[in-house]
Amino acid sequence: EVWDYLDGNGFHQMTTKYKDLVNNYGPSNSIDEFAEKAQLLGAMNSKSIWEVWNYNKFGFGDRYCSGLLFWYLNCPVRQVCGRMWDWSLEPTVSLFHTQNALEPLHAQFDYLKNTVSIYNDYLRSFRNYRLVAEVYDLDSKKISSQNIPFDIPEDAVAKDLIKLTFGPEITQVHFISLRILDEKGKEVARSFYWRSSDKYLGKTTLTGPASGGFESLGTMKKTELYTKCMVIQTEGNYKVELMIRNPTNRIAFFTRLQLLDADQKPVRPSFYSDNFFSLLPGETKHVAIETAILPISGAGYTIIVNGWNVPSKKYQLPANTKK
């Protein structure tokens, strides 16, 4: 009853259809476990909305889209779903996966066609770039890899450049890594997806590669991350710079960072350059967290690093370095 009230009298069907979709990741034994799985669903939903817009913005697609409005961003009460952030100012996964989908040069996967397209929102063209598409199974084993050159005009979409295949021997849940490399081989954009082998039975069902059959994610082997952080103070603001490295041969799936105060409550507002990301074996990522709320010494403030298969670790913030 309370959840429906906080969802605009059940506007998003939080306690019915949304709950059933979350349960496709396996039944939950606690509210914390349910919330974690709901973040996975939120990531999938939000990213798909914007990528459909990317693909069809010029009216050439089979799912025409002339514009897109993501409403209710400044909600005055706590919300239970359908938000990038709410009254508490705690960003959800929706914000970061929207951010990824709307990066101006973006590689994206189509769950219905199994194809990869490139979206270019820059007012300049790109030549001699490369698209790298890799598929990993649930055990982090690389199943396939494609690497092709491409050119793309300014403000354009290069559609269906690659078609991915998923054989019957692949694990029920698997992962897709997409990267764009510039003419010098430097990575300039990346995106990451998880997919199931469920058959799509139509939009009125809760089945399909983006909706059902994700229960086996719960069997992923644990992995460890190495994290290093420093704090920089500039003109009254603070930036926590993090280097997160995956030294293992396993994917660190759905990694989350959180800046906590001395009372172990989230520091709000804080602005993360990225969050809820996945790291391939051997991969390193740099993330910045900016806030105006931090003691001079950083005493008692911590960074929490955890993930779907990443045990939670707490790191004490070091003393600030002034710039």
Q: For the terminal residues, how far apart are their CA atoms?
A: 51 Å
Could you tell me the strand content as a percent range? 35-45%
Major sheet: 5 strands, mixed
Structural class: alpha+beta
Q: Order of helices and strands, N to C?
A: HHHHEEEEEEEEEEEEEEEE
Please state how the strands of the largest beta sheet are arranged side by side. 11-13-9-8-16
Overall 3D shape = globular
Mean pLDDT: 91
Residues in helix, %:
10-25%
Tell me the total number of β-strands: 16
C-alpha-based Rg, rounded: 20 Å
Given the structure, what is the number of helices? Answer: 4
Low-confidence stretches: none
Report on the structure:
The longest helix is centred in the first third of the chain and has 26 residues, at 31-56. This protein is an alpha+beta fold and 323 residues long. Helix 2 (14-22) crosses helix 3 and helix 3 (31-56) runs parallel beside helix 4 (93-101). The protein has helices at 2-6, 14-22, 31-56, 93-101, and strands at 105-110, 115-120, 126-136, 142-152, 156-163, 173-181, 187-196, 226-234, 237-245, 252-260, 271-272, 277-279, 284-291, 302-307, 310-316, 320-322. It starts with a helix and ends with a strand.
Topology record:
Blueprint: H1 2-6, H2 14-22, H3 31-56, H4 93-101, E1 105-110, E2 115-120, E3 126-136, E4 142-152, E5 156-163, E6 173-181, E7 187-196, E8 226-234, E9 237-245, E10 252-260, E11 271-272, E12 277-279, E13 284-291, E14 302-307, E15 310-316, E16 320-322
Parallel strand pairs: 8-16
Antiparallel strand pairs: 1-2, 2-5, 3-4, 3-6, 6-7, 8-9, 9-13, 10-12, 10-14, 11-13, 14-15
